[in-house]
Amino acid sequence: CGRRNSRAAADAAGDAFAAEHAMNQPQPADDLAERIRRWHIPLSRGALTMREGLVELSALGLKQDEVPFLVQLVENPRYDFPGLELFSGAVDLATHDRIHLLLGRGLLPKDEAFVIGFTMGSTDRVGQSEERLFGFFAKYLYPKAYRFSDDDLRVFRDAVRLGFVSDSQPLSEADLERVADLPLCEARRALGIEED
After folding, report:
1. Rounded (10°) CA dihedral 171, 172, 177, 182
2. Among 30, 59, 69, 152, which is disulfide-ready with 148 (CB 3.0 to 4.6 Å)?
C-alpha cells in the first residue's frame, strides 16, 4: 500500500476522512439523496478495511429489498434459473457493495456502471451481445432513477473491457469475506485488482 510523504497530503486526507465520516453519520431522511451522491471511499483510503468501509456505507441504510424488482432480476444471481445465468457477474447487494469498496467507486450512476461493467468483465465471459442486452435493460427498461445515460453506458462498456484485461479474479466468484479484514489496498492486491 502506498504511503504519502507530504504532511499537507496527510492533513488533506485527514480532513477529507473527517468530512466523509461526519457526512456518513445518521441524518434526516430528506438528506439521503445528497449523502448517496457524496458517498465515496477512494483508492487513496487503502488503509481502511472492507469491513470498516461497509460500516460507513451501511450508515446510508440502503437495503436489498429497496432495489426495484427488475434491477434485482437482471443483476442478482438469486433470480437466475438453474443452469441459465442471465448476465455474467451477477451478485447480490452485499457483494456489490464490497466491490464498490474494492474498486474505489462511489454511488453515482457512472460509478454503478463501472462497478457492474468491471464485475461482468472480470468473468472473461461477456460477449458483445450480452453487453448490448445489458445496456438495453439499463438504458430503456430500468426504472428511471436506475437508468443509464449514454455516458453511463460508455463507462459500463469501458469497465467491461477493463475487467476483461485486468488480472483480477472474477469478482462475482471471489471469496470477499476472506479479505474483509485486510486493508483495502491489500485486499485489492490479493484479488488481482490493479490500483494504477
Report:
1. 10
2. 152
| Range name among 42-46, 88-92, 98-102, 119-123 with the lowest pLDDT average | 88-92
Report whether 99 contacts 119 (CB < 8 A): yes
Give how far Cα 49 sits from Cα of 12, 37, 57, Å.
20, 22, 12
Average confidence (pLDDT) over 126-134: 94
CA 59 to chain centre: 16
CA–CA dist 38, 127 (Å, integer): 33
d(CA 165, CA 118): 10
**What is the pLDDT, as a whole number, of residue 130?**
93
Distance CA 170, CA 12 (A): 34
Distance CA 7, CA 121 (A): 38
Dist CA 89 CA 179 (whole Å): 19
84 bridge partner residues: 81
Q: Quick one: residue 89, left, alpha or beta (phi over 0 = left, psi -120 to 50 = alpha)?
A: left
Which of 88, 122, 98 is CA-nearest to residue 194? 122
